[in-house]
């Protein structure tokens, strides 16, 4: 059972029960993992061991997912249409704006994955955030050959704001171009669960192609964690549209994926990154069937996504978690024709993942699946990295034990866009 508490009750619990649980729970967690550190002897510092385990428990309690029997989901973010006020948005080097874009056009075919739940989830206007170097005409029509990044935020499909971290701002700094983030509806109730995120992502893509006039092959998709999963779902749907004869939306140049789930951190040698679409540590298995989910539980801060994030997101597809729209890492051995079509279309992919994160095994499986089909995949394996820790690079307290992966992630993104420059644009 999944429930969304009334906002007033949820707020009361946030200010009463949650602090009490945090004080007791985090104190106990610190004591327990002070002991486990000397028992397990992990290849990193005690400070890091305590941070990741306290953070995991704190995130669980803070979201009230400590009550798995109740299935309490977070509240809808009241800031979802708001430009946040932080040191990123206040930087004189960038301009930021938000626009509410039109829902996905009725002209775009609704394929089987959407038709399965017809009448349960509909289209809706989508908040879209545009970020670009200062002085850029944010909403101008695309210039010939101009490239753009369509970003989809992470957060387990239940939380996350595109402007909370440096991610989109760093993409702007690297590309010196526009980055557009479609802030899709989070899966918090029956009306906003999947395929709402897919419909909203398609609306964002449609906006760039039809309203702003970007050539599809000049668009790179980027997403971290659940955002990486959303990027994979969007690319699959665009590909299936073409297979059904609808070619008005096209396919992207590539994908940048971060934190997609994969395998045992010591089972795979480090690979040299090559230019690809950017998938920063993408989440790619909602069945939670890969070994690293348990093996890396105490080396990562990622909370248990099966408590409410997965059930809430897939509530209309509860017996279909192995579907490629939810668990693309399970389409193994390159036998999924989708991957072969991406290879033929020269869609480039850049994937990054940390070997100490809970999603490590599924990330590796996803990469191997794409490579087996001939997709041009660059895989940056971040030694002992945890889930998307490059996003917290500006928190000095975490360093040098965490967030040290950012230079490697940044270099991978730079090489990806340099490769696109050499390939040329439409």
From TrEMBL:
<dbReference type="InterPro" id="IPR050300">
    <property type="entry name" value="GDXG_lipolytic_enzyme"/>
</dbReference>
<feature type="transmembrane region" description="Helical">
    <location>
        <begin position="20"/>
        <end position="40"/>
    </location>
</feature>
<dbReference type="InterPro" id="IPR029058">
    <property type="entry name" value="AB_hydrolase_fold"/>
</dbReference>
<keyword id="KW-0378">Hydrolase</keyword>
<dbReference type="InterPro" id="IPR013094">
    <property type="entry name" value="AB_hydrolase_3"/>
</dbReference>
<dbReference type="GO" id="GO:0016787">
    <property type="term" value="F:hydrolase activity"/>
</dbReference>
<keyword id="KW-0812">Transmembrane</keyword>
<keyword id="KW-1133">Transmembrane helix</keyword>
<feature type="domain" description="Alpha/beta hydrolase fold-3">
    <location>
        <begin position="150"/>
        <end position="388"/>
    </location>
</feature>
<dbReference type="Pfam" id="PF07859">
    <property type="entry name" value="Abhydrolase_3"/>
</dbReference>
<keyword id="KW-0472">Membrane</keyword>
<protein>
    <recommendedName>
        <fullName>Alpha/beta hydrolase fold-3 domain-containing protein</fullName>
    </recommendedName>
</protein>
């Amino acid at each position: 059972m999944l429930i969304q508490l009334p906002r007033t009750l949820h707020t009361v619990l946030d200010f009463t029960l949650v602090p009490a649980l945090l004080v007791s729970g985090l104190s106990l967690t610190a004591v327990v993992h002070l002991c486990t550190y000397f028992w397990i002897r992990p290849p990193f510092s005690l400070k890091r061991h305590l941070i990741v385990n306290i953070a995991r428990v704190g995130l669980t309690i803070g979201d009230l997912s400590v009550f798995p029997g109740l299935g309490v989901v977070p509240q809808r973010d009241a800031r979802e249409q708001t430009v946040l006020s932080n040191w990123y948005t206040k930087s004189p080097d960038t301009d930021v704006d938000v626009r509410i874009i039109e829902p996905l056009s009725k002209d775009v075919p609704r394929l089987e994955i959407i038709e399965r739940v017809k009448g349960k989830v509909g289209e809706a206007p989508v908040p879209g955030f545009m970020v670009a170097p200062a002085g850029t005409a944010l909403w101008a029509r695309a210039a010939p050959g101009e490239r753009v990044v369509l970003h989809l935020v992470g957060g387990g499909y239940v939380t996350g704001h595109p402007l909370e971290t440096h991610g989109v701002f760093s993409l702007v700094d690297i590309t010196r171009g526009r980055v557009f983030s479609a802030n899709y509806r989070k899966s918090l109730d029956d009306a906003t669960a999947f395929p709402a995120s897919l419909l909203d992502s398609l609306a964002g893509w449609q906006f760039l192609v039809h309203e702003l006039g970007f050539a599809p092959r000049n668009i790179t998709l980027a997403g971290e964690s659940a955002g990486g999963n959303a990027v994979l779902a969007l690319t699959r749907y665009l590909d299936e549209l073409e297979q059904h004869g609808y070619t008005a939306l096209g396919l992207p140049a590539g994908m940048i994926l971060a934190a997609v789930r994969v395998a045992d951190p010591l089972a795979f040698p480090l690979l040299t990154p090559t230019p690809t679409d950017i998938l920063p540590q993408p989440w790619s298995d909602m069945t939670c069937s890969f070994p690293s989910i348990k093996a890396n539980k105490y080396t990562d801060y990622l909370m248990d996504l099966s408590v409410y994030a997965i059930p809430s997101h897939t509530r209309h597809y509860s017996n279909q978690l192995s579907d490629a729209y939810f668990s693309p890492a399970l389409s193994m051995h390159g036998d999924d024709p989708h991957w072969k079509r991406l290879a033929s279309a020269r869609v480039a992919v850049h994937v990054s993942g940390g070997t100490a994160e809970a999603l490590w095994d599924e990330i590796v499986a996803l990469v191997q699946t794409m490579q087996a089909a001939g997709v041009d995949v660059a895989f940056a394996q971040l030694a002992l990295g945890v889930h998307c820790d490059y996003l917290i690079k500006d928190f000095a307290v975490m360093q040098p034990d965490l967030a040290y992966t950012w230079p490697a992630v940044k270099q991978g993104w730079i090489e990806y866009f340099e490769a696109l420059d050499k390939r040329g644009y439409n």
